[in-house]
Amino acid sequence: MLINNNSHRALEVVLTIPVRTYDIDFMGIVSNIVYIRWLEDLRLKFLDEHWQLNQQIEQGYTPILAGTEIEYKRPIKIIDQVIGRLWLSNLGRLKWTIQAEILSNNELAAVATQKGGFVSLQNNRLIPIPEELQKKYLQHQQGIQEN
């Protein structure tokens, strides 16, 4: 799993992540299931900043997660300083892909890719990517090409 460079990270969000005592397993490191929660926290921050969930629900749809892939690079301990980064890496007609990285003390600890889409709240069927999100993503992509 490759993480692209910072200049191509559409709509990136950054989150300082506290390591809690309940995040630690019997080996004294952050349990692998905690990374899933951290990815959820990052996606919620992404939604807060770029595509608010309450507005989606009012418009009759919501995002869904179709898959998660995580590659662990190094363990994280309770005393480590953790930062998460998440960005929109691809946007198709029906599906989106986000990438994330978790840094521990400024070193890469994990990388992740998640895929999903949007479903109608009326019939639970996949709908096309909302036009506003497409425009926002395209504006970022065009900005990269101009530089």
UniProtKB/TrEMBL annotation:
Pfam annotation, one family: 4HBT_2
Domain of life: Bacteria
InterPro entries: 4-hydroxybenzoyl-CoA_TE, HotDog_dom_sf
Cited CDD domains: 4HBT
Name of the featured protein: Acyl-CoA thioesterase
Originating species: Nostoc cf. commune SO-36
Taxonomic classification: Bacteria, Bacillati, Cyanobacteriota, Cyanophyceae, Nostocales
